[in-house]
Amino acid sequence: MEVVKTEKSVRRIVLKKKHKVLMAIFIIFAMITNIFGLYIGNKYYLKVCRLNINPATTGIDYYKPSFNYKRFTDLESYNVSIKSSFDYKLSGTYIFNPKPTNNTIILVHGIGCDRWESMKYSDMYLDMGFNVLAYDSRAAGSSGGKDITLGFFEKTDLDNVVKWVKWVNPKAVIGVHGESLGAVTALLQAKLDQSQKNVDFYVVDSPYSDLWELMNIKLSSDLKPDFQPAAAFILFYANIVALKQSNFSLYAVSPITAIRDIKTPIMFIHGSNDTFIPASMSLELYLRKQGQKGIYISPGAEHAMSYMTNKEEYTAKVKQFLTENKVLKN
User: Fold this and answer.
1) Is the dihedral of CA 48, 54, 59, 63 positive or negative?
2) Which pTM does this prediction carry?
3) What's the rounded mean pLDDT across residues 73-85?
4) Cβ atoms within 10 A of the Cβ of 50, count?
5) Is the Cα dihedral 295, 300, 304, 307 positive or negative?
């Protein structure tokens, strides 16, 4: 009997040792996986949220060929500084229309750019009788903010800009025209604005419908077929880094989720040849939107190039949309 007990004891000891070894292996594997995941997730986060922008490719001197710079210098304008809800300032330029008006358009630029990039749209709106306010988004140009949050905190900044315009001119007819990230910012702010209705219309050029879906598409296309499942792994850890570093979740940036609650008129614009954000995302948003809306797919245009590619048609479509929604008179 003692021999049997001894054999059982030995087996238990061996099993316990195996169990400890397996647990140690599992813990080491999990630690290595997490360390690697956080490393690669951080690299991806830095790539999209903390851009190293070449100063030579931003600013008024770089972008002035894209708009009527002479008219801009002839018109009355002044620099504005608007307080963000996150302890930094938003810098912008307010341009008065040569004919006194209450109508004001707010221009919101795309990622990696500044207010001067969005000024190409100023000519269209000045011709239609609007004042123009172009501003530098969070972590761009002269505005504060340490990082880009891909629309999450940018929406609140835009809401403050809208409220500033309403405070300066309580009778203002306010529109927002956003491009790419600026378009997403506009859509997310539109949901915030539903209770106050400060904004009368939105024009959104090249928005993504859901950030997580877009990132997954782009990451998967960048990886070889055998490694495409790793896209979800990278995004999972990038989201952890975003939560830790910037207090926002990649999952939370989803205009397609917000769009059903937005009653304000929205015009969707997208280039048919956009390979950065597929035009199908604008179509998806358009179909989900309830109430007044419009859509224009710009033939042959690449990402955020619809206006420069088809300027006359683009302008006519926007003007038609504003007329139909009684912002402009015939």
Assistant:
1) negative
2) 0.91
3) 97
4) 13
5) negative
